[in-house]
Write the C-alpha cells for this entry.
Amino acid sequence: MLSANTHRFTDGNIVKSLIRFALPFLGSNFLVALYGAADVLIVSRFSDSATLAATATGAQAVFTLMALAIGLALGGTVLIGQYFGAKKDNDVSETITTLFCLFGIVSIMCSGIFLILTEPITNWLKAPPESWHGTYQYILICGGGIFFTFAYEAISAVLRGVGDSKNPLKFVAIACICNIILDFVFIGYFHWGAAGAASATVISQGISAFIGGLYIKKQHIISFQTGRYFIPEKAKMILKLGIPTAIQQTIVFASFTIMTIAVNKLGVIETAALGITNRIDGFLILPALAFGAAVSVMTAQNMGANKFKRAQQSFYIGFLMSLIFAIPAFYLMSVKPINLMQLVTNDPVLIQNGSYFMLAYSPDCLLLALVFCLNGFFNGCGRTTFTMIINGMSALVFRIPLIFIARDLFEVGLSMPFSTIPQLLAGIIYFLSNHWKKILILDKGK
C-alpha cells in the first residue's frame, strides 16, 4: 500500500496543491544551496583564494555528472506521477524498483569512469596552477562517492512522483546539517581544504541516502504483486523520458563548467568571485525551481488522469507564483549586488568582480520564472525531448559562444539572459500549439 504522505493532485484547489508541493521542495532546494554555500563560505573563511577556486572548479565538474542523475530521476518522477494519477498502483511499484536498479548500475559505472579520468578532467578544466591539486582532490573524492548522490536522487524521484515533497526535505536537512558540521571539522580544524569540502559532501549524502532508503522500506511505498524487481518495459520508458532530460541537464551543467573554464583564464580572483556569485544566484532562483518542479508533478498526474485543462491551469498558476518571488530577486541582483557579495566575503576585489557579474545576470531571474515552469509543464507531459532541444539550443548555440567571446565577468553574466530569450520564445510557441496534449506514455505501458 502507498504511504499516507503521498498526494494525488488530480482534484482539489490547484493553488493549495501547488503550495503544498512547492514549499517543501523550495525548502529542499534552499538546503541544497545552503549545502553548497557552506563549502564556499567555510573555505573562504579558513583557506585562501586558490582553495576557493579549486572548490568552485571541482564542483562544476561534479555538477555535470550529477546532471545525469537528475535527468534520469526526472524520467522516473514523470512516469511514476502519470501512473499514480491514473491510479495504476502496481505499475507505480514496478517503476520504482526498476528505477532503483537502473540507478545502481549507472552510478557504479559513472564512479569508475570518474576515478579513472580524474587527472584528464582536471587538466581539461584548466584550473589555475595554484588550485590544480585541490581541484584534483575534490573531483576524485566526489566522483568516487557519486553512488550516494544517485541514491538520493532516486529516492527523491520516487517520493515526488507520488506527491510527497516533505520527506525529501527532511533527508536534505539531515545531509545539510551533517555537511556543515563536517565542513568545520575537515576544513576549519584539520585544514584539508578542497579535499575536506568534498569529503564532507560525500559522507553527508551517504547518510541522507541511507535514511531515505530506510524510510521507503518502512512506509511500504513499494507494493509487489508480480514479485519482479526489474521490468524491461518500464526501464525503456524511464530511459525514454530520462535520457533526453539527462542530456539536457548535462549540456546545461557543462555550459556552466565551460563558463568556469573561460573565467579560469581570467585569473584566480575572477574564478573565486564566480564561485561566490553562483552560490548566491542559486539561492535566488530557488522559488522558480520549486514551482517548476511542482508544475511538473501536477502536470504528470493530471495528464495520467486525462485532465488536460487542469494541467494547463497548474502551469499558469505556477508561473504567477514563481514570478512573485522572481521580482525581488531581480531587484536585489540589479540594485544591491554589493550587499549580496558582502554577505559572503569582505574582500573588496572579490566584491567588485562578483557585483559586475550579478548586475549583468539579473534579468535572467525574471526570464527563468517562466522558463522553469514551461520546462516543468513539458516534462510532466512527457515531452522531455522537446525540452532537451530548446535547452540544448540555448546552451550550445547561444550561451557557450557568448561566454568564449566575453572579456570580463560582466560580459560573462550577460551571456545568461541573452541565451535564455530564444529558449523562452520556442517554449511559448510550442505551448500555444497544443501539441503537448497527446498522451505519450501510458498508452505504451498498458
